[in-house]
Amino acid sequence: MKAMIINQFGDSNVFTLADIAKPDIKAGHVLVQVAATSVNAVDTMIRQMGPDLPLSPAAPAVLGMDFAGTVEAVGEGVSHFAVGDEVYGCAGGLTHLPGSLAEYILADAKLIALKPKNLSMHEAAALPLVAITAYEGLDRAQIKPGQNVLVHGGSGGVGHIALQLARYFGANVFSTGGGDKQMALIEALGASSINYKTETVADYVQKHTQGAGFDVIFDSVGGTNLLNSFEAAALNGQIATTVSLLELDLSGAHFKGLSLHVVFMLIPMLHDHKREAHGNILAKLADIIEAGHLRPVLDEQTFSLEEVGKAHDRFASGQGLGKVVIDV
Fold this sequence. Notes:
By secondary structure, the protein is of the alpha/beta class. It has 2 domains: 2-127 and 268-327, Medium-chain alcohol dehydrogenases, catalytic domain (Quinone Oxidoreductase, Chain A, domain 1, Alpha-Beta Complex); 130-262, 3-Layer(aba) Sandwich (Rossmann fold). Helices cover 30% and strands 27% of the residues. The chain has 11 helices and 15 strands. The strands form 3 sheets. Strands 3, 4, 5, 6, 7, 14 and 15 form a 7-stranded mixed β-sheet that branches. A 6-stranded parallel β-sheet has the order 10-9-8-11-12-13, sandwiched between helices. Helix 4 links the parallel strand 8 (148-152) and strand 9 (172-177). Helix 3 (128-140) packs across helix 4 (157-168) and helix 3 (128-140) crosses helix 10 (276-290). One of its GO terms (molecular function) is oxidoreductase activity. Pfam families: ADH_N, ADH_zinc_N_2.
């Protein structure tokens, strides 16, 4: 099969078109003909860092985690998928799991679900990693109807999904952005926008919660922005973050009695731990999408499999708005 492989780690020009062996079907798995995949931050980190990142595969490697495609073969023990099913998932591109930058991917059946019927393959491929991350974070933060919820980075990949899911769960949703395009998207997706460049945390906490703070904060920016989340949170509030690779003073969280949830959605793939949770979440998301409550935002530029390097550059540029998708 045709695949884009990397023989060494580094810049976006390391991708090479190659003809490699098509995966053999095995028990508990399905063979999927890939129609599209998308770029996530972790894909670019693996490409750049290689062995310096513990979850990277050894070269030569096929990267790419997200995909949408059609089931071509079903392994022993798999009863809930059939040949011809249109599916989506996040099932490879790290450690020992070959990725989706290829014509076919061998996917653990626990990690995938039937594709939402009202989305194209191109659209569905944008969702798995970011949507699972958003769902898990809000679920662990025990989101409830009527709560005031703040999403940091609501125009980003994870953030724009978290924002929509928070609305679906019945919350009053607010979100930070840093420019006119970002603010417009946040508003279009149904949240009240906050310009973090012109409004202080104290100002927007007073404006939107009368000084009480937000019940739930989904921080897709993370890092030192967690200190802003601590400041913006209500007493005994819940904070979910996707970026916590730093040393941080937790005093602010302590004096408010905050609960901090670190979301690292790759754990099921890395450790073969509760993989069925991802398939279950994707199935729930498909229902939410088919009911009209969630949609992916896609970058205006599209790329072919051979243009994966350009797709990585587009993602890294920060010039796009929405997920960068690669059609296979």
